[in-house]
Amino acid sequence: MTYFETLHTALINKTAKIGVIGMGYVGLPLLARAGRVGYHVIGFDISAERNAMINDGVSYIGDVPSSDLAALRADQRIEATADFTHLSACDVVVICMPTPLNAARDPDMSYIEAATAEIAQRLRPGQLVILESTTYPGTTVEVLQPAFDARGLAIGAEYFLAFSPERIDPGSANFQVHNIPKVVGGVTPACTELTSAFYTQIVNAVTTVSSPAAAEMTKLFENIFRNVNIALVNELTMICDRMGLNVWEVIDAAATKPFGFMRFTPGPGLGGHCIPLDPFYLAWKARQYDISARFIELAGEINMMMPRFVRERVIQALNSQQRSVNGSQIVLLGVAYKKDIDDYRESPVFKVMELLQEDGATVLCCDPHLTSFFDHHNHEFQTVPLTDELLGSANCVVIITDHSAFDYEQIVAQAAVVVDTRNATRNVTASREKIRLL
Ligand code: SAJ
After folding, report:
1. What per-residue confidence (pLDDT) applies to 170?
2. Which pLDDT score is estimated for 313?
3. How confident is the model at residue 374, as a pLDDT?
4. Which of the four, 82, 174, 240, 432, has the lowest number of CB atoms within 10 Å?
5. SS3 333
């Protein structure tokens, strides 16, 4: 039998051993799902703490219950290690490593390069390598393939390589690994077919495309679509402000259109580990083809204007109380980058806090999902509990994140004035004169 036939059979009958590099919010759910459908899965992470928790059947990712890990451990289907020599035992190796931006806001490929080097050292005939990390078109063929080809194996015959973007939406109640369709692009048709055969065992729909670059571009397109549409509604907010129009009324009215429209809402800025960052992976690569991704650059500029727009709203709100920002106490409600989660990466709260502090305000933060948080300089901030006393002592309250746990009736009743960047108070009827929407 050929290496292709051997691996294809092992993928279908679940005797293939799977390796997943990176036990984060993408890798751990994938490890658990692959184990659940019957594969033996080895998770690779440099964190001894994460590996120990997985091997003890204890989860640290909300989407993966500890009970699932414990059951998989009891069945000896999963294990975690920092020993990358075990990669040689894996028939499939999936890379789920971070792809952040560096200080110059260019792609930081160091995690991918490190994983590639570990795999290349141990690459053997019959292995399939899949990159899932969001990255610029060309990464799989330009960064991974040369390292693997250097081992002297023939791609598509002796080893196999593909890209399949992760689409995990942390904390989503409706979409988990098994019901998020997968896009697959292999370097050769055999690579595509084996990768499709693998994911067909673990997700409910697989779409194949003609190359890894097409799959890499697909993922960026998905997230750039969101980024530019959020920027559009943020720009509309600033225009409506000048015209004295209520942008939320306009959005609600536009959303009555049953086709050809998709609702996005303004906010204090763009947070998260995907949407603000992914577009710059494409902009960076496009420049190498002498084309500027103007939409992406413009969207980034507009989204980055929102914290200052919030500051303007606060100035207006305090002005209505005959107060200056300087010397005021301002309470920010919400640190997380979106509602009902504790993730605050790239959260706009940091820029809003910085601007108000520069104006001389004392700023306190409440977030029911966080007791403390760190800024980019690794300074730790403690959040404060939301109480009537705190609200009453504030000269202005700003809703940054529309967590469901907040009692918006209480907030409006107790606060002197509220700047609501999410229209979270839409259902509050009393004291509406205290509310300033974006
Ligand atoms: N935001 C707005 N207005 C909107 C939507 C979002 O200001 O109309 C802000 C959010 O407050 C947040 C940022 O944009 O600060 C990003 O929000 P997001 O809803 O896009 O959430 P993310 O960053 O968790 O995006 C993830 C992405 N998932 C993957 O990349 C696999 C994205 O593709 C999903 O569409 C999104 O989750 C989702 O729908 O929840």
Report:
1. 82
2. 97
3. 96
4. 174
5. strand
Ligand 1: which residue has its CA nearest to atom 12?
A: 271
What pLDDT, on a 0 to 100 scale, did the predictor assign at position 62?
A: 87
Does domain 226-437 sit in CATH 3.10.129.10?
Answer: no
The closest-lying atom of ligand 1 relative to the alpha carbon of residue 338 is: 11
Report how far ligand 1's centroid is from the alpha carbon of 341 (Å). 12
Say whether pTM exceeds 0.90: yes
Cα separation, 116 vs 172, in Å, equals: 30
Q: Which residue has the tokens 């746990």?
A: 405
DSSP string, 140-202: IIIIIHHHHHTTTPPBTTTEEEEE------TT-SS--GGGS-EEEEESSHHHHHHHHHHHHTT
The dotted CATH code for 3-210 is: 3.40.50.720
- Of 226, 126, 123, 140, which Cα lies nearest the Cα of 183? 140
Of the candidate ranges 11-15, 147-151, 171-175, the one whose mean pLDDT is the lowest: 171-175
Grouping H, G, I as helix, E, B as strand and the rest as coil, residue 44 is: strand
Could you give the residue range(s) of every CATH 3.40.50.720 domain in the chain?
3-210, 226-437
pLDDT band (50, 70, 90) for residue 172: confident
**223 CA → ligand 1 middle, Å:** 8
In our burial notation (b when 16+ CB lie closer than 10 A, e otherwise), range 53-78 reads: bbeebebbbebbeeebbebbbeeebb
> For position 103, what pLDDT does the model report?
87
Atom of ligand 1 nearest to the CA of 229: 8
Q: What is the rounded CA–CA span in Å between residue 92 and residue 322? A: 65
**Taking CB atoms and a 6 Å cutoff, what residues make up the pocket around ligand 1?**
167-169, 222-223, 226, 230, 264-265, 267, 270-272, 274-275, 337-338
Distance from C-alpha of 418 to C-alpha of 332, rounded to nearest angstrom: 10
